[in-house]
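// run 5 | inverse folding | seed 20
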């Protein structure tokens, strides 16, 4: 009897293990990355015409965390290279998430709450190191993107301004050419070692935010507990980032951290994905004072598509937040930071970005202004912040 019981238990646990290592991650992917409306998406002829001539540039996408080959088209989640191309995106920033504490919320996220990434890493059979090491998780995600760019000669990893210019020149002849840029979401990925900045830069990372959902050794998060400013370690890291011409991203930073970083840096910074308090009052979102401060530095504010950033479903709240930033500091400081595949609910997947063009036209933006918001502003800032590299 006991023998049969043990045999049954063994069969059941192997089935559970097979399930865990095959379907658990895709199920989590589909569960967390939802769209409010399924494709195909319809827009007016005018919006279509404007959208087809612009180049989309998106400041934030978390695709690399999920069990999807970036080069293949999927019917779950928000994006992949084929869908981004169809949506008119020519430049995509892919961010690496390396720690995601359970129960994260805008009420305050505890840094030591149970981290969900080990479960995702194990379920996707990431290398063993990446189950426990945040640095290894960032390195693995960079490798995933580099492998994709190596297999598709029209997909480029941009490391320098020269790369960006090469991409733009190639894209003028072939709209399938797409540039990608690697970003890190929160420098707890350094695991306390400033020298790991060099490792991440060597891996191709060119944009970094100091914090993510929770306070870390560098400083406070907008959804942290203490929400403090820059620490001594944060100051040391910031200097190293500047030495490498890493683009500073202030998304997720506490108000005190935004002030401290702006006081210690020069030149443009970005806020890769955010909402604004004037249209959606949340501690995660930017105040008018900080919108002005980022604009004064020549930076851009990437307004998100997701429901909790803009306080409502559909695309209109995103267009309204963009209108607010434009009215406050000028259209040249407005950009797009979708947060696609960032465990959020969005109105449409990457093939529906023309709906945002339509919503911006309805907000009264001219076709030229829509072109700036949808991509040209990001190109302008990256041309200033990326290391020069060797010109073509
Ligand atoms: Zn984020």
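// decoded
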């Amino acid at each position: 009897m006991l023998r049969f019981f043990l045999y049954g238990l063994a069969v059941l646990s192997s089935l559970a293990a097979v399930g865990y290592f095959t379907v658990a991650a895709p199920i989590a992917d589909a569960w967390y990355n939802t769209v409010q409306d399924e494709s195909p998406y319809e827009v007016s002829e005018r919006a279509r015409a404007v959208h087809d001539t612009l180049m989309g540039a998106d400041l934030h996408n978390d695709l690399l965390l999920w069990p999807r080959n970036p080069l293949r088209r999927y019917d779950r989640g928000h994006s992949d290279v084929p869908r981004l191309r169809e949506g008119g995106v020519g430049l995509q920033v892919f961010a690496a998430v390396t720690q995601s504490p359970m129960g994260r919320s805008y009420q305050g996220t505890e840094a030591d709450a149970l981290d969900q990434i080990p479960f995702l890493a194990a379920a996707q059979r990431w290398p063993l190191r990446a189950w426990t090491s945040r640095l290894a998780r960032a390195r693995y995600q960079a490798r995933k993107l580099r492998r994709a760019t190596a297999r598709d000669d029209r997909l480029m990893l941009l490391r320098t301004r020269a790369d960006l210019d090469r991409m733009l020149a190639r894209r003028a002849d072939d709209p399938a050419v797409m540039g990608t840029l690697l970003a890190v979401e929160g420098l707890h990925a350094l695991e306390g070692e400033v020298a790991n900045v060099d490792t991440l830069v060597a891996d191709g990372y060119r944009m970094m935010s100091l914090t993510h959902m929770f306070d870390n050794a560098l400083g406070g998060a907008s959804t942290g507990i203490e929400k403090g400013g820059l620490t001594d370690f944060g100051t040391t890291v910031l200097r190293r980032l500047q030495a490498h011409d890493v683009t500073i991203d202030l998304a997720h930073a506490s108000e005190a951290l935004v002030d401290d970083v702006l006081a210690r840096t020069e030149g443009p910074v970005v806020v890769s994905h955010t909402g604004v308090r004037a249209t959606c009052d949340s501690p995660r979102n930017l105040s008018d004072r900080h919108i002005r401060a980022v604009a004064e530095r020549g930076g851009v504010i990437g307004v998100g598509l997701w429901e909790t950033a803009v306080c409502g479903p559909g695309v209109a709240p995103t267009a309204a937040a963009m209108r607010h930033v434009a009215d406050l500091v000028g259209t040249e400081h407005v950009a797009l930071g979708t947060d696609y595949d960032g465990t959020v609910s969005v109105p449409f997947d990457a093939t529906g970005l023309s709906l945002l063009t339509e919503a911006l036209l309805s907000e009264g933006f001219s076709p030229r202004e829509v072109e700036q918001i949808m991509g040209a502003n990001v190109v302008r800032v990256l041309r200033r912040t990326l290391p020069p590299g060797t010109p073509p």
